[in-house]
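Severity: low
Component: inverse-folding endpoint
Summary: output formatting inconsistent between runs
Steps to reproduce: submit the following structure tokens with default settings.
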């Protein structure tokens, strides 16, 4: 194995002359196992015989000394191309102006510790890394991409990995289309992006997006952190990502768009932190085998932390039908319009279970929203039945301003759309209003806090309300003609008006505890954090428990059964801790966000 210095073939990184031919000669002279070496300097590569740039060879690696730069100053060229080659490592090179193309079935290509800056231009030379024609087993490790437009554009790339890369001030960092299956996107940082952080389309079966940190979108109209627009996908995972928006935390009437995660297909979305977007999770369609097949499955949205979405925490759009979606165990805090909104169309078999949905009236500036619903259903729900079970829906603030209305579960008509809710099960939910409505509230603007509401007379067909608990509501169930429904075992406390339908069968109730996990905190690793939970209840015999809800590392509690305790963390990162209370009947919970800061990672080229 030899090291071949490009300067030995006439390349000169200290002048403004073109070095394309000299570098190509050095590569041509190398054999498999050799390394082509670039001393520090800026090498101009404008005059390739083809627009794709300098051609690489199988088994020949490229290595740059610190400060080695490949620079393209014209629009219709690239620096490098890999066409049908295999077993190549590109290490420690900086690209300016243009990047490279990988195509023709190339495989086992590694690009690591490289930097790409100011990569822009016109299509198809605008992307830093263009990949197409069935490329597979590529590895992009610990690279730094910044101050550029689009970075990765990939068609039909398979079994490849993006790990530990840093994207800063770029338009769209990663975009794959076609049959891009078996790929992994792990521990990448994407800061200050516009449009979409990671966009995946078509078929992404087997893809894993885990531990990515995507923050601070720049588009004034909004954008997505992760757009998994891949309806022909099954067996994929979006897990443990930190997704923070910013500009999209506006009133929903401003017309902005975007979500922390847009999902299609049969994908599991779990343990993600989603803050300050228009929507936390937007579900656009379910799983189909192909474009001509019916929808046969939907995603699982589980154990996510969602805070301050300017419209909905979880939104199933009106785009298409959906089957067998599960929404379970999520903490949805202060979504402006609704916690969970299932929008129109035919959506059988949806399970909404074990979610904690909380809203503080007055949390948003002006709080111009006319109506907030914990769970809003606006769809034809037929066999297999939809179920809404074991959810806690809480209006948490002490007061409710004029113009603000609260519904727990809302069966909505939606414009001229006339839904039919068949065989829906609403069971063991807790719907609680802790706010005291002001006496001067204008009834034309504010409805009384309501447990169950609906828009369309006669829309319910064998809907069951079983073992639900209502507290502090003005009306338990909106009066009117709901249709054919079953009500048994429901109880209420401090609800003066049960409603004409009278779904309450027992008015003796045990009050639900109020639980507070405390304020968010920032701690420096490896320091411990002091936790101060609080519970208000009329029962002295309570079980409390602290546990990790979300976080990449382990959490050790000094005493996980005490309200006041300490927690230590195995790694720096963001953690969501869960404080739950059990009085034998009710099990409400609250969360606290802990940012554990470690030594700041500075890329070697910064």
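Observed output (run 2 of 3):
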């Amino acid at each position: 194995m030899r090291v071949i210095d490009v300067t030995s073939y006439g390349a000169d990184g200290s002048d403004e002359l073109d070095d394309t031919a000299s570098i190509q000669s050095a590569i041509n002279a190398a054999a498999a196992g050799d390394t082509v070496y670039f001393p520090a300097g800026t090498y101009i590569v404008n005059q390739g015989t083809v627009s794709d740039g300098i051609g690489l060879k199988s088994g020949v690696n490229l290595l740059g000394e610190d400060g080695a730069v490949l620079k393209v100053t014209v629009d219709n060229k690239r620096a490098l191309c890999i066409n049908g080659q295999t077993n190549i490592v590109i290490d420690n090179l900086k690209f300016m102006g243009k990047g490279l193309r990988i195509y023709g079935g190339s495989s086992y290509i590694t690009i690591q510790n490289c930097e790409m800056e100011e990569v822009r231009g016109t299509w198809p030379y605008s992307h830093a890394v263009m990949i197409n024609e069935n490329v597979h087993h590529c590895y992009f490790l610990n690279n730094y991409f910044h101050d550029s437009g689009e970075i990765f554009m990939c068609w039909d790339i398979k079994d490849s990995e993006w790990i530990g890369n840093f994207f800063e001030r770029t338009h769209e960092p990663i975009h794959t289309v076609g049959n891009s299956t078996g790929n992994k996107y792990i521990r990448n940082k994407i800061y200050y992006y516009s449009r979409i952080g990671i966009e995946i389309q078509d078929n992404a079966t087997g893809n894993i997006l885990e531990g990515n940190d995507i923050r601070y979108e720049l588009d004034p109209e909004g954008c997505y952190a992760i757009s998994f627009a891949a309806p022909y996908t099954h067996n994929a995972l979006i897990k443990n990502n930190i997704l923070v928006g910013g500009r999209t935390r506006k009133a929903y009437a401003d017309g902005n768009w975007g979500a922390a995660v847009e999902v299609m297909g049969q994908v599991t979305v779990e343990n993600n932190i989603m803050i300050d977007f228009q929507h936390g999770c937007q579900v656009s369609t379910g799983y189909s085998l192909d474009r001509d097949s019916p929808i046969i499955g939907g995603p699982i949205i589980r154990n996510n932390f969602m805070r301050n979405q300017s419209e909905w925490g979880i939104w199933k759009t009106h785009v298409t039908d959906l089957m067998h979606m599960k929404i379970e165990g999520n903490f949805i805090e202060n979504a402006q319009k609704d916690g969970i909104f299932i929008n129109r169309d035919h959506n059988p078999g949806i399970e909404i279970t074990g979610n904690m949905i909380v809203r503080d009236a007055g949390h948003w500036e002006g709080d111009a929203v006319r109506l907030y619903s914990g769970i809003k259903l606006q769809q034809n729900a037929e066999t297999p039945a939809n179920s809404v079970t074991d959810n806690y829906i809480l209006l948490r603030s002490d007061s409710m301003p004029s113009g603000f209305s609260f519904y727990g579960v809302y069966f909505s008509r939606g414009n001229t759309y006339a839904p039919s809710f068949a065989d829906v099960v609403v069971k063991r939910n807790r719907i609680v209003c802790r706010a005291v409505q002001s006496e001067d509230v204008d009834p034309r603007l504010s409805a009384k806090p309501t447990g169950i509401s609906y828009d369309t007379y006669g829309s319910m067909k064998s809907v069951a309300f079983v073992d639900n608990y209502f507290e502090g509501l003005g009306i338990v169930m909106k009066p009117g003609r709901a249709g054919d429904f079953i009500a048994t075992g429901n109880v209420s406390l401090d609800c003066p008006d049960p409603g004409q339908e009278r779904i309450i069968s027992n008015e003796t109730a045990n009050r639900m505890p109020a639980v507070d996990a405390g304020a968010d905190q920032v701690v420096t690793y490896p320091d411990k954090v002091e936790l101060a939970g609080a519970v208000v209840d009329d029962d002295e015999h309570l079980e409390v428990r602290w546990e990790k809800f979300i976080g990449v590392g382990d959490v050790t509690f000094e005493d996980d059964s005490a309200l006041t305790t300490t927690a230590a963390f195995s790694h720096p990162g963001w953690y969501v801790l869960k404080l739950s209370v059990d009085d034998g009947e009710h099990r409400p919970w609250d969360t606290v966000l802990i940012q554990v800061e470690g030594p700041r990672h500075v890329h070697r080229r910064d």
